[in-house]
């Protein structure tokens, strides 16, 4: 059976050129970048080259990047790092953030901080005006994701950044899902901190970075050596960082092409469902091109996902699996309400490397067949 992978928003396969770069570096670049001998200097050269490539991709300076173990650590460093350096006990975020931000904020609440969780509309977007109205004299951090990982909704980051200019509030965006998909310029976005991860754009797992604007102060989470300008202790993972840079090179040069292709995939998928007579609704608006989240009346998501898997299609609900049961997605609950049908009948298809229009058409046909069969029960 030809398996069709439509869960690229969860993680993505490594690009063959990235695998080659990773494999070569694993064998050849084994020195410690902090060592002063030739082997260490070779590792430092590879590290510096990768750092420049990655910084250029967001129009930042090389020394504004902090390499991390991925998006979760980058988000935690942004949230806890800001709280550890700034006076004030108020944080603003949204109800649709990734749990790397939400759970970090919940921990700070237990430590005495006051967190405002801004709502979103049925379009899946927060309003910049709501951010403005939530600001207080003791606000230290605003954290709003760039693109939602479940419904793909693109948040008004530049607009929020503009209204925070001139304030003492640190502005962080979790750009993990959007990096490699949307063009980014940290100055145009007016962000102080920005989190990304390699495995969402055909790079290796276990590597990411936090962009830290010059003059933005954060406390470290890890203590040890003086790597990353004393901001993140631990010997740098040079092979993974080199592979990350290669993935970004590829994603940057193919971004426009991929956007066109993914939009085509969305059209194909929805057209097939319509032709097959499937009743559906697309969740979210102004969404990223690679994410298609659909509500299909009459189905239960757990059995739907199992049947898709048996048919060779890998997709997800965006919901959390806990103790063998699927809990409603916190994003869809935020958009539609706790008891809304959308929180129980929505599925996320996400596109990426290796797919063809034929794959999309076949997946949509199987989706239609399964949804119609399950709706009859």
Automatic annotation (TrEMBL):
Domain Aminotransferase class V: 4-362
Record bears the keyword Heme: no
Keywords: Iron, Iron-sulfur, Metal-binding, Pyridoxal phosphate, Transferase
Enzyme Commission numbers on file: 2.8.1.7
InterPro entries, per database record: Aminotrans_V_dom (IPR000192), Aminotrans_V_PyrdxlP_BS (IPR020578), Cysteine_dSase (IPR016454), PyrdxlP-dep_Trfase (IPR015424), PyrdxlP-dep_Trfase_major (IPR015421), PyrdxlP-dep_Trfase_small (IPR015422)
Reactions catalysed, as given in the entry: (sulfur carrier)-H + L-cysteine = (sulfur carrier)-SH + L-alanine
Origin superkingdom: Bacteria
GO molecular function: cysteine desulfurase activity; iron-sulfur cluster binding; metal ion binding
Keyword check for Chaperone: no
Principal EC category: transferase
Necessary cofactors: pyridoxal 5'-phosphate
UniProt similarity note: Belongs to the class-V pyridoxal-phosphate-dependent aminotransferase family. NifS/IscS subfamily.
NCBIfam families (UniProt xref): PRK02948.1
Protein name: cysteine desulfurase
């Amino acid at each position: 059976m030809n398996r069709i992978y439509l869960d690229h928003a969860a993680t993505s396969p490594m690009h063959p050129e990235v695998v080659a770069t990773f494999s070569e570096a694993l064998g050849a670049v084994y020195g410690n970048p902090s060592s002063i001998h030739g082997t260490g200097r070779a590792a430092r050269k590879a590290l510096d080259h990768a750092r420049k490539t990655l910084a250029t991709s967001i129009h930042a300076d090389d020394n504004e990047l902090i390499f991390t173990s991925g998006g979760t650590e980058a988000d935690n460093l942004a949230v806890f790092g800001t709280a550890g350096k700034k006076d004030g006990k108020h944080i603003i975020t949204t109800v649709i953030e990734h749990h790397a931000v939400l759970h970090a904020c919940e921990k700070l609440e237990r430590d005495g901080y006051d967190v405002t969780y801004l709502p979103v509309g049925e379009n899946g977007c927060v309003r910049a005006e709501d951010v403005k109205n939530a600001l207080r004299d003791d606000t230290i951090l605003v954290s709003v994701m760039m693109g939602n990982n479940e419904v793909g909704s693109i948040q008004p980051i530049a607009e929020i950044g503009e209204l925070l200019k001139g304030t003492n509030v640190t502005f962080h965006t979790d750009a993990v899902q959007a990096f490699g998909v949307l063009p980014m310029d940290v100055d145009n976005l007016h962000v102080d901190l920005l989190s990304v991860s390699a495995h969402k754009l055909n790079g290796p797992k276990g590597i990411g970075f936090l962009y830290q604007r010059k003059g933005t102060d954060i406390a470290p989470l890890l203590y040890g050596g003086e790597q990353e300008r004393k901001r993140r202790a631990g010997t740098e993972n040079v092979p993974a960082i080199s592979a990350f840079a290669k993935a970004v090179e590829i994603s940057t040069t193919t971004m426009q092409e991929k956007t066109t292709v993914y939009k085509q995939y969305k059209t194909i998928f929805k057209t097939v469902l319509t032709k097959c007579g499937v009743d559906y609704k697309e969740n979210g608006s102004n969404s990223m091109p690679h994410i298609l989240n659909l509500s299909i009346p009459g189905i239960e998501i757990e059995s739907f996902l199992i049947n898709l898997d048996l048919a060779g299609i890998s997709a997800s609900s965006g919901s959390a699996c806990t103790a063998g049961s699927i809990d409603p997605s916190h994003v869809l609950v935020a958009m539609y309400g706790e008891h809304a049908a959308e929180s129980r009948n929505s599925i996320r298809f996400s596109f990426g490397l290796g797919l063809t229009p034929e794959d999309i058409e076949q997946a949509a046909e199987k989706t239609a067949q399964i949804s119609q069969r399950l709706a009859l029960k």
